[in-house]
Structures are given as structure tokens and as C-alpha cells.
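Dear colleague,

Thank you for sharing your sequence with our group. We've completed the structure prediction you requested, and as agreed, I am returning the results in plain text so they can be pasted directly into your records. Please verify that the sequence below matches your submission; if there's any discrepancy, let me know and we will rerun it promptly.
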Amino acid sequence: MLDFAKQAEEIHGTANTEMKKVSLEPAEFELVNFTCYAEAFKKLESISKEKMKSSLITSVQPGRKLVMQSVPTCPVALSFKIRCQDCNQMFADISQYQKHVSHDGKHKQMMNQFFGKAEKAHSHDQPGIRRTLGLYTHILESSKKNQTPVGVPLVVTCFSTHVQEHIYVCFACEDCFTESSLKQHFDSRKHLIHTLLYLNPWRLPFAWKYHLGIEVLRSLALEEEKERGPKQMMMKVLDIPYEMFLPIPSTFVEVLKRLELQHTLLKREG
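Please find the predicted C-alpha cells below.
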């Protein structure tokens, strides 16, 4: 339906949309009962035919037909890169990122540099928990249904290699949530609105607050992200030492307080 509406807008924008009008003398104006549409139209039609020899009734001419347009079904997740916030380095997929965290000496060096004693206290060769990231899985599953999550670059996935749970920090909503609330957060009206407000509030039309549906909001947000280009399509991941990760923070404010010396990493854009 959104696609049909956009096609109609394009056609309407290129069509001859001259508005018909009737100029009335004061005496004629007094004769028109504007409180009743039917009576007002009947009187104005009569005056138009008498004075301008034309009718107010528009003759509709067949124009361009609205057609169902095919939508590409290739996984949009393929365009999402994964960025290590600790090292400010991009990776094409989850396997490359996992290899980087497990075996790249630079990553361990950066962890020591930014987290100091907390990282060194747990730097012994203990195998971490190898897993995929919940947000990456959510992107893959959603893209197969052609429902790409919006606002992914505004969310930072925080994890520790020795803790099963992840936390997600959304800067658009100023919220913090766990894996169990991941889908609910990204599908929420609140997240869609705050993503648009964060990226470009001018995307929201007049009187948007109570009248825009979920799909309209999603469409507006996707258009904004598309215009920003593929370089913005990234999933941000921050590796945190075990000692700093537990107990798992439950609020946005608590995350910022826990990582007050690492705000640069958490908010890093590039």
C-alpha cells in the first residue's frame, strides 16, 4: 500500500492539477448556502455554467496504471558491517569479528589500553564463550522477511567473552536492554520515532505524534538511512572485561556510569 501511495504521489506531482474556481459577486455570494455541500455545489455549478460556460465537474481521464513492483529479496544483512568499538576496525561478517577478538593481538592490546587493570585481571588464557551476537542474528532473520531493523548503528552491543548474556545500549532511545527484549525494542513505535528524531526530525510530517502507523514510521526511517549511504550500515560491538561487565547493568544511566572512562569507545562513530 505504501508503494501504491508513492506511485500516486509521483503521478499527481507531474499531472496538470489546475484548481477550478468560481468568482462571485457579493450578491451571488449571499445566495450560496455554504453550510450544505450539496446545495453550495449545485448553486456554484449553476453560476459557473451561466458565467463561464463550463462545469465544475471534472472529467477523469485514464492515466498511468499503478502496478505491483517487485521488491529485492536478497538479505539486507549482507550490507551490514561489524565494527569493533575497542579497535575502531570494520569486519565483513560475524566470523571475521570473532576471529579478531580471539586471536588478534591488537584487540588485546587495545583492551589493556582502555580498560587497564580490569582487563589485565582477566587476561589469562581462559577460553571464552564462542557464540553469535543476538542482534546480528536478528538482522539476518528480519532481512529474509524484507523487514530490515532500523536504527542498528545507533545501538551498541556490549559483551564480555566470558559472559553468556549481552546488553544493548540504544542512544536514540537512551535505553538499555538484554537479548530477551531485542526484537520487542526494535519493533517498538518508541524506537522508530526516536530513531527518526535522532537522525532527522524533519522526516516526521506535521501532527505526526499520534497518527503515524508502525509501517509508515519504518518506511521513513529506512529512507533516511538509505540516503545516508552504505558506510552508515554498521553494527557496533564493544568488548568489555569480565570484572566491569558484572553485575549486568539494567539502565542506560547505569551503563554510562559504569563506562564513564570509556565514553569515547561507547559513542565512537568512526
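Summary note from our side: Residues 2-52 form one domain.

Kind regards,
the structure core
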